[in-house]
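tl;dr need the bound structure. longer version: we got a ligand (zinc ion) that a collaborator sent over and nobodys looked at where it sits. i said id run it. heres the input, straight from their email, havent touched it
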Amino acid sequence: MKNSVQMVEILPSLLSADFARLGQQIAQVESAGASMLHVDVMDGHFVPNLTMGTPVVQSIRKITKNHLDVHLMITNPDAFVPVFIEAGADSVSVHQEVCPHLDRTLKLIQSGGAKAGVVLNPSTPVSTLTEVLDVVDFVLIMSVNPGFGGQKFLPNSLQKIRQLAEMRDRRNLNFPIEIDGGVGASNLVDIVRAGAEWLVAGNSIFGAPDPGAAFSALRQTAREALHPVA
Ligand code: DX5
Ligand code: ZN
């Protein structure tokens, strides 16, 4: 199947990094070529885990010019979107499941000057996005139940990527599809061929002995999947 968006990016997910050496770990993936970093914000309500807030994003902003992709796993994103943009987020994604006024929330993100993304839990159908596809800057499909790094990829996510890519192409839209959870060497080719472009990888990068080398290997696999050598 032809993808309308052609570039693939691997986004190291900092949740799996060693927080005591965060700057060093970021430098490792950036020197291997990472140009986007994924930041998971969890509130202990929407998901059963707590992670980082705006002070961490501010600190990361000071040490990188690269794209900071902030994934909000919180019940009241509208209250926090402005402060995360102020802290330095280049893109902010919010969960469909907690946004009764999703159109308004996406426009709130865009009005702050960031790219607006919407995230779907594994149990939320792609069809729930029909009315906002011409507003979004990107869509994130969760391939694990959000809350923790290092979980197993849910294979049904491939079908959701294909479905979304078809909807996008049919409507002549051009937003990237992001995938998050359990992404690694064993499923990367299938994910890219299904139509995803922004591939978040936590454990498969920071769980490796050399995160920079792990990043490079994943990026190579993803590029070959997009443009197979004959
Ligand atoms: C899970 C987070 C992910 C997580 C991915 O709720 O949204 O970004 O860090 O980690 P891996 O790649 O280890 O599944
Ligand atoms: Zn995430």
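gonna send this back to them w/ a short note. The CA atoms of residues 54 and 83 lie 7 Å apart.
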